Amino acid sequence: MGLETIASSKARWLRRHCNEDDDDADFVYFVSPGDRRRDGMKLGVYGVGKGGRVFDGWDGPYSVYNEWRRELSLLALGVEPEEVWNHPSRFRGKPFVELIDFPDSGNCCIGPKTSAELYHDFVAFAAQAKKHFVARSPTITPLVRGVGNRRNLKTHWRRQVGLVFATRLARETGGTVPAGSPEDRRWMLEAYRRFRGAFRTASDDGLMFYW
Question: Quick one: pLDDT at residue 141?
């Protein structure tokens, strides 16, 4: 199973309920009562308003995303994500908490105010992230380069996902994995940059949507 994130700016409310035309629309969001980080956005269906744009963020397996998010938590907070999930009050106001303590399942959204806060975190930690993620990445072909289209990207991730588990197992047992080339080890940094771009887009009166 995979996770896909897309952000838009200038989100425009369309109507309260979905209809059959939404399946054929170029791009729509649905903001539901369960979206706890919607920042007060009105419930219902949204499209991209005048002057708005769409930014593709993450598109890959949950397991790879969760490994990336784990490293983000270690980078910014020095703890595993489970520590944040189990004791959220201890980390309130800390960097990236709104993203680390966020469902990794689909059909959820993050509103413009929270997106702006997260974008600020991504900018503030850019220098540390450049060192951390390149050093910690399993050897996987980069997130975007070398994959021609979205269908190929999904196939590519399915083939590569085992490397994440092999790397984590090696760390936990004191073993090693092949280092690979520097270019092959930059996918976590590339993901970091794409999330930064996505939250920058969503912070402009938009939404970050997970499905």
Answer: 43
